[in-house]
Amino acid sequence: MENFIVSARxxxxxxxxxxxxxxxxxxxxxNAIANNHLAQAYLFTGPRGVGKTTTARIFAKTINCLNIxxxxxxxxxxxxxxxxxxxxxxxxxSFNIYELDAASNNSVxxxxxxxxxxxxxxxxxxxxIYIIDEVxxxxxxxxxxxxxxxxxxxxxxxFILATTERHKIIPTILSRCQVFNFSRITVGDMAKHLRxxxxxxxxxxxxxxxHLIAExxxxxxxxxxxxxxxxxxxxxxxxxxxLAVDNLHVLDQAYFFKISDNILKGNISHVLLxxxxxxxxxxxxxxxIVGLGEHLRSLMISKDAATIDLMDTSQNIKDKYKEEAPxxxxxxxxxxxxxNNQCDLSYRASNNKRLLLELSLxxxxxxxxxxNNPEAEKxxxxxxxxxxxxxxxxxxxxxxxxxxxIPKPTIHTKQSVNTATTNNSPSENKINISEEKATYKAPVSxxxxxxxxxxxxxxxxxxxxxxxxxxxxxQKEKTLKQxxxxxxxxxxxxxxxxxxxxxxLKEIIDNxxxxxxNQPSLKSVLLEEQPQMINESDIEFKLYNDSQAxxxxxHSEKLLMRLRTKLNNYSLRMKITIIKTAVYTAKGPKDxxxxxxKKNIHLQTxxxxxxxxxxx
Length: 616
Ligand SMILES: [Zn+2]
Prior knowledge:
It is built from 28 helices and 11 strands.
């Protein structure tokens, strides 16, 4: 019986051009040889099975090959595999090339032995080459013993160090080497090489099976070739995708297509049955989630011809994705990917992993239903918002306290206001003296009144209004919809009621006041009457009139949200008290003027702009 040679050895590349998937490195090395610019030491890093040692051997063989003629044939930089040097190398009988596996020979003595050999010049060929594999395994002392030689080796010595773990190499070694980073071999490159091997071995194999092997090998060609050998013997040289899936214990792509198809239909029961089938076949849940994520991603990138090549798979499978992708909307795919990702992240910590998987799949089905039937979904969303705004308004109770001691400013002052207003720009017409109007019903003030009177309307939706805040519920709903959903921050926190720190409260309020650029009247009243806690959960805002209350109401939701979260007390409420006026006894026109300014800051601007003076 013929001796079986494993494919990884039999098809180990013997020339630079046959190295799989590392063309940039091999061409750089060939150029270095052609230009005679050889470094003293090289470090090849990269994952296992990507061709580091193979490339090192080819490099070693090439620089010693007797048939390389740089002067007459500088184009041909490949070992001839025929000369004495190449032959002895191929037979493992070369005295010029030493291979040391640092994983098993990592002591100081091993390195000393090597260093001793370095002193003897080569007998045949130009160079002595030392290939040290897994160099990161050398002990610290061995590294140090090696360093001196690495620093100043004889001209005929070349070192090629190889490692899978570059970060373990000490900087003093790194700095003395020319470093080459070997990348993972792509599935496409690997499948091509497998095809080459299959043809040479007279193995019948379909493209999908070779791609599957390449995917399973995860970038390592050596692994791909061993899997290939294994499958060839299992399947007696007739490799199909189906047989490969069965033997490699890989989840068949068809499952994912079925699952996504049922997600699209919103068919929860089918999806759960498919998942059950997969679990019963012994597949790990996390494995499934990762696979589903890749599948959804593939669908996503197949939607656009520009991104379809991001998929590292056979043309057959690409075509299948291309055909399926248009059925799925981008938003469904993005949201499903997000759910899938969340499931993946919480999988390890979950106590009921299967339920987590099922829940995620059900949510994906739900997504599809929502997208297919957007009207129904919109309705439920709107309903939620309404509930929120009602609960908010229920909390915003406005209590008016009228104080009996109302000062009686002279008509004279009011007249001066009137005159000024009628002669001025429209922006200053917004003086609201509705309070005076209510008190005196004087025709003078009637003419000044240019803003619409506050709407006194009972909303009948749990909103109690003492004086009428001058805004309707519709307005409230509109602003609420534009803002963040307050339910999100309140959810589950209703019971958090930390005691309120007055200093912190003041800080939040002050911060709020500073930003009130467009409501100077509200700003001044809040500066004057600092809002305070009047019991465990009510913060009292004392205001002078409806207009200020209206202004405040524009901010109340955000402010309340901020107060609750920053003070960590979710029972807090804002209580607005309208003080018709401050308790004071009018002494003269100056006092009266000051009092009016308190109520309406515009008056001060008016007085300054028109250079008015107060009677004394
Ligand atoms: Zn040769």
